Q: What sequence folds into this?
């Protein structure tokens, strides 16, 4: 089961040339009760390059989380295929190719901040000393060094989310999957964490697939914004933000003209898609 | 304001801690004060209203009997306590094992569900006479079985509930990090379930002592607290009967205290569930 593109690489290892994520003709149908099945995704094609930051945006219920879970191999597509660094999603998961963060921080409440960050490392047999060293680096990266020995319930929501991001980055993944990680935070905290994420991504060079329902957030963070529409979930359009590489972004960008142009482009793609009928916030059941 | 916005909950101000210590003392002292007042009121009512002893003996009479029969009460308490302990351990071990099986294998769950529901409604101590004839009326085995069955139900129910509390986000996390089933159980399932198991054990510990005493009301060897309560009451030694009841209360308190301590020790790392 080696990746066909990996000519000289070790069997099963991620290839340098392969895209971070390659989604090809993917569909996901959830069987519903009484034969009323839900088509969460249909004919989705998407490529995320190595080191690229791509946001998924769309009305709730359009299948953003479903798509992310398929990439993470937390769920399987009913049609199509998904490759992560040139190998099947399942192999990529078993090979620890990605880090993941959810809307709920999902920290283990009985572990300290440090032990939470070390979790993926200890699961994968990294020795005590190396684990500790890496956790220290991660704590510094997210600015929580003073809170290493606190328990999650002693932290604010924003701090918990930073721990979750540190945990996701602990194994230096080349791919970071994030499902509305800032969704439950207030605007101030949100903008601060967005800036931190930009800085972290510049430092780690990881590719990111970032689910959000905030247009400014998507534009600020991304190289490309993938706009999705609901029922069935599809890609309605892709907006190339092109605001320069992540490293050069800062808060001044939020007042830049190019930034506003990109926001407008994403908004039009969102609302123009579905016959002018705004489907925002409509849950499909 | 970026750093200042972060709350620092660890640095509890000293006055707050002092107030909390005082509150904790009040918390401990309140039931003791209440108990003393109740006993005093009891003594006063019995003395002033000249209540006949068969209705309600005075606390001083009970205390006198308790002192006089202390060796007998102690040995009876030891026997009842041993029955309760053996039953508690056996019942809890079987119940926890069954709950683990039921949470892992759907068929076992379906099979055990009606059995447990049935056991929950059967008055288990009523089985005591049957068990005495099965195991012989001179051994304590029947009583220990009664305790084990009585204890097994709440331990099974709370453990199974605990095992099912694993949050979906934690399950996803374990899968995302390709944790082996064994790793997932250690990292997530057990810490999630432990507080529930300990709550079940604490409830079960009181139940164990009660069942052990009540089982003795239904016959078997004249050895434990329950047997002596019935004997004393039948002989119109009401104050003595109450002295034995007091012995039973002490055994119950000991069990409750011990399981609470075990609970605190066992959940010291998982207290934040
Ligand atoms: N496990 C599931 N079982 C059944 N239906 C699901 C499941 N997960 C998602 N869905 C359905 O799929 C659609 C897309 O859901 P989701 O990917 O969560 O949307 P989003 O994240 O964009 O809000 C919704 O209609 C949702 O009800
Ligand atoms: Mg979602």
A:
């Amino acid at each position: 089961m080696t990746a066909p593109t990996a000519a000289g690489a070790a069997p099963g290892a991620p290839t340098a040339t392969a895209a971070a994520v390659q989604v090809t003709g993917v569909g996901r149908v959830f069987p519903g009760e009484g034969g009323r099945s839900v088509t969460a995704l249909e004919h989705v094609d998407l490529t995320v390059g190595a080191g690229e930051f791509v946001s998924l945006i769309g009305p709730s219920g359009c299948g953003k989380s479903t798509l992310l879970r398929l990439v993470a191999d937390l769920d399987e597509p009913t049609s199509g295929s998904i490759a992560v660094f040139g190998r099947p999603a399942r192999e990529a998961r078993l090979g620890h190719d990605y880090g993941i963060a959810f809307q709920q921080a999902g920290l283990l409440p009985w572990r300290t901040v440090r032990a939470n960050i070390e979790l993926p490392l200890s699961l994968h047999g990294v020795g005590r000393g190396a684990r500790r060293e890496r956790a220290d680096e991660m704590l510094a990266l997210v600015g929580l060094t003073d809170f290493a020995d606190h328990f999650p319930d002693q932290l604010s929501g924003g701090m918990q989310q930073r721990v979750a991001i540190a945990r996701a980055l602990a194994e230096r993944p080349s791919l970071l999957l994030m499902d509305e990680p800032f969704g439950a935070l207030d605007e101030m905290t949100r903008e601060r964490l967005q800036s931190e994420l930009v800085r972290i991504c510049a430092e780690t060079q990881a590719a990111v697939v970032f689910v959000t329902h905030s247009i400014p957030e998507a534009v600020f963070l991304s190289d490309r914004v993938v706009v999705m529409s609901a029922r069935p979930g599809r890609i309605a359009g892709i907006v190339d933000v092109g605001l320069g590489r992540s490293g050069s972004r800062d808060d001044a960008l939020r007042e830049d003209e190019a930034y506003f142009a990109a926001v407008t482009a994403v908004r039009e793609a969102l609302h123009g898609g579905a016959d002018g009928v705004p489907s925002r916030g409509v849950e499909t059941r | 304001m970026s750093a200042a916005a972060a709350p620092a909950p660890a640095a509890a101000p000293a006055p707050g801690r002092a107030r909390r210590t005082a509150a904790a003392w009040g918390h401990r002292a309140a039931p003791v004060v209440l108990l003393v007042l109740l006993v005093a009121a009891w003594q006063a009512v019995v003395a002033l209203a000249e209540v006949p002893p068969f209705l309600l003996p005075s606390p001083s009479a009970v205390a006198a009997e308790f002192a006089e029969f202390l060796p007998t009460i102690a040995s009876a308490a030891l026997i009842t306590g041993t029955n309760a302990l053996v039953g508690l351990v056996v019942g809890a071990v079987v119940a926890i094992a069954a709950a683990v099986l039921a949470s892992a294998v759907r068929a076992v769950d379906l099979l055990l569900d009606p059995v447990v529901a049935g056991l929950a409604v059967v008055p288990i101590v009523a089985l005591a006479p049957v068990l005495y004839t099965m195991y012989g009326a001179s051994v304590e085995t029947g009583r220990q079985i009664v305790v084990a069955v009585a204890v097994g139900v709440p331990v099974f129910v709370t453990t199974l509930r605990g095992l099912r509390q694993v949050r979906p986000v934690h399950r996803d996390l374990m899968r995302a990090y390709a944790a082996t089933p064994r790793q997932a159980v250690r990292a997530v399932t057990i810490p999630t379930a432990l507080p529930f198991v300990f709550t079940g054990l604490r409830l079960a510990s009181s139940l164990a002592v009660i069942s052990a005493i009540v089982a003795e009301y239904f016959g078997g060897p004249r050895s434990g607290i329950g047997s002596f309560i019935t004997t004393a009451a039948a002989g119109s030694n009401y104050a003595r009967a109450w002295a034995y009841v007091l012995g039973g209360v002490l055994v119950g308190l000991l069990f409750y205290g011990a399981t609470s301590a075990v609970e605190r020790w066992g959940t010291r790392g998982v207290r934040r569930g």
Observations:
- The interface with chain B takes residues 69, 72-74, 93-94, 96, 98, 100, 102, 104, 106, 108-110, 119-120, 123-124, 143, 150-154, 156, 159, 188-189, 192 of chain A (CB under 8 Å).
- Chain A has eight helices and ten strands.
- The first helix of chain A runs from residue 64 to 71.
